[in-house]
Amino acid sequence: MLFKPSMFNRVLNSGSSLILYNSFGGTRSLLRIETNKVGKVIRWLNDNHVDETEDLDFTRLVKLGYLVPESTDEKKLRMLHYLNHISNNRLQLVIHVTQECNFRCAYCYMDFKPVMLSQDTQEGIINYIKKNIQKYKAVQVSWFGGEPTLGMKIIENLSRKIIDICKIHKRPYTAIITTNGYNLNPENVNILLACHVTHIAVTIDGNAKLHDSQRTLADGSPTFDHIIRNLINIRDNIKTQTLTVSIRINITEKHLSYIEEFYNYYNDIFGNDHRFSLFVRPVADYGGTRVKSMKKFFVNDMHGVYDSLLKIQSGIKFFPNFIDLEIGGYTCSAHQLHKYTIGCDGSISKCDESLNIPIGFLTSDGTMEIDPFKHAEWIFGSPKKQCDECFFSGSCFMELCPKARIQGNWNVCPVNFNDIDSLILLAANTYNIDVL
């Protein structure tokens, strides 16, 4: 049998060695090639008609997907994986508990209306799950907002009922919450654990000075120290290993000279607790007027950030960032057929941050009145020609953001490949990857 290099390969230099990445294999495929083997590996990865299966290194590259049978149509395999990705038979509900927030972040797009999840919508969620639980293999809820901890009673009430339904029908249930972290006091954390929350995503923007310049309470008061105390309580007093915490840092150019400082700060506090990780993202324009004044400070290229982190990384890791490198990991969950975002008024959307683009409505009796044409528009994209040949298409599935396409804002690929290359090298340095 003759073999050819996979179309999803990326080969990067790392000192005297090479790092191999394949977007069809994700981070588990990462491989370091030592200097003495670089020559033959490069030859194999540039030859479309090769068979050296007697060489154990060659066989290993085949096993990891870097070399595939010559007759393989990888584009069809990519489509198969995409179909599996979008039809994942797990019900995913992103529930906006409230439109209100106790923060006034400098870049937030929300209007902060004093609106909570309506009683009709709460009943609709429970009735929908009751009626349809047999169709799904599992249920996952993401508590979102506004600031969802302002509605702890709603979270507690809905969780108890959903957990009971899932127990009766023997379906696994998990939940995650995206929060500013201010209300993560011991009482609320214990409630969230009882509600089967297994992951908490908290945003803390760098060091105290930078954070408190971007993320204040509604009255302008600082929030950094209070959030850190809450997280230290989780570190010291919450012993379960099933709970993980990601600290998201939204960076601007103002952060760049402080990267080592804030990394060392979080590493000193949480580096010995594997449940904590960091997630670095650039501040971006998701709408609204507040962010306009920050555009001059936007970070357009993340590769410099990743390169800096590569040099200083110690105990606490950047695992949430590496999801971008997994198969399907760089595409939006809005593509998934059974993923719905529920607004406070019962509106059903696909995008967590764009409730103003609904595809339907959830009635109190548990009926999802969905426009199938609008739904299909989110599921199936219109890939550009260059996407069809791209090595990264195993991860982005040829479309990062369906909202951008629907709104007519995507004319070129939004992926910065210098950023991806630096992220690959950071992942290779983080994981204990195999060596050839």
Describe the structure.
The strands form four sheets. This protein has a ten-stranded mixed β-sheet. 34% of the residues lie in helices and 20% in strands. It is of the alpha/beta class. The longest helix is centred in the middle third of the chain and has 17 residues, at 152-168. A hairpin with an 8-residue loop joins strand 15 (347-349) and strand 16. The mean pLDDT is 94. The protein has 16 helices and 18 strands.
Q: What descriptors fit this protein?
A:
18 strands, 436 residues, alpha/beta, 4-stranded mixed β-sheet
What is the structure about, briefly put?
With 436 residues, this protein is of the alpha/beta class. The chain has helices at 38-44, 56-63, 74-86, 119-132, 152-168, 186-194, 208-214, 224-237, 259-270, 303-312, 319-322, 372-379, 385-388, 393-396, 402-406, 417-430; strands at residues 3-5, 9-14, 17-22, 31-33, 67-69, 90-96, 103-105, 138-144, 173-179, 197-203, 215-217, 244-251, 276-282, 339-342, 347-349, 358-362, 368-370, 434-435. It has a ten-stranded mixed sheet with strand order 13-12-10-9-8-6-14-15-16-17. A four-stranded mixed sheet has the order 2-3-4-18, covered by helices on one side. A two-stranded antiparallel sheet has the order 1-5.
Write the layout of secondary structure elements.
Elements: E1 3-5, E2 9-14, E3 17-22, E4 31-33, H1 38-44, H2 56-63, E5 67-69, H3 74-86, E6 90-96, E7 103-105, H4 119-132, E8 138-144, H5 152-168, E9 173-179, H6 186-194, E10 197-203, H7 208-214, E11 215-217, H8 224-237, E12 244-251, H9 259-270, E13 276-282, H10 303-312, H11 319-322, E14 339-342, E15 347-349, E16 358-362, E17 368-370, H12 372-379, H13 385-388, H14 393-396, H15 402-406, H16 417-430, E18 434-435
Helix pairs in contact: 4-5, 9-10, 10-16
